[in-house]
Amino acid sequence: MARAIDKVKNCETMTEVRAGVNALDDILVPLLVERGGYMTQAAKVKNDENLVYDQDRIDAIIERVRPQAEREGGNADLIERLYRAMITCYIDYEHEELARMRAAGLKPRTASGSNAS
Ligand SMILES: O=C(O)C(=O)C[C@]1(C(=O)O)C=C[C@@H](O)C=C1
């Protein structure tokens, strides 16, 4: 199976480079929107500001994506930096989504862990 790095076309002009980048952004943006949708789901399920940030999960994601990047012929350090920056943005978004849902009437979790009715 072709690695991602092997799909990069040789370019002679910046027009060609930017056409390649635009084509990938057309794929990336919908995926980032979809990933953001799961932050909304996470905010709803966690329903606790103190649970939004999860260091163990961040570590697990980085452990997954670094070897994936290497298998695709990429730079694992670059992908880790991108993921850490992206997750930081999604954490902010998850907090925003939880605040939005609270303003719309979502009640905080009770001490027993279930949602207050
Ligand atoms: O898996 C979670 O617990 C999430 O809320 C998602 C996510 C992410 O994948 O961006 C965001 C915040 C957490 O710190 C860890 C990971």
Structural summary, described in words:
The chain has 117 residues and is an all-alpha fold. It has one domain (14-102): Chorismate mutase (Chorismate Mutase Domain, subunit A). Helix content is 70%, strand content 0%. The protein contains four helices and no strands. The chain has helices at residues 14-46, 49-52, 55-71, 76-103. The longest helix has 33 residues, at 14-46. The mean pLDDT is 95. Bound molecules: prephenic acid (PRE). Prephenic acid binds next to helix 3 and helix 4. Residues 8-98 form the Chorismate mutase domain. Pfam families: CM_2.
Map the helices and strands.
Elements: H1 14-46, H2 49-52, H3 55-71, H4 76-103
Helix pairs in contact: 1-4, 3-4
Bound molecules: prephenic acid.
GO biological process, one term: salicylic acid biosynthetic process
GO molecular function: chorismate mutase activity
Protein name: chorismate mutase
* Unreliable segments of 5+ consecutive residues: none
Helix/sheet category? mainly alpha
Radius of gyration: 19 Å
Question: Using DSSP, what is the number of strands?
Answer: 0
State the CATH class.
Answer: Mainly Alpha
Total number of distinct structural domains: 1
Q: Could you tell me how far the N terminus lies from the C terminus, measured between alpha carbons in angstroms?
A: 51 Å
Number of helices: 4
- The helix content, as a percent range, equals over 70%
Percentage beta strand: under 5%
Bound molecules: prephenic acid
CATH architecture: Up-down Bundle
- Kindly report the name of the CATH homologous superfamily: Chorismate mutase
User: What form results from the Cα inertia axes?
Assistant: elongated
What fold name stands as the CATH topology?
A: Chorismate Mutase Domain, subunit A
Order of helices and strands: HHHH
State mean pLDDT (0 to 100 scale).
95
Largest sheet features: none
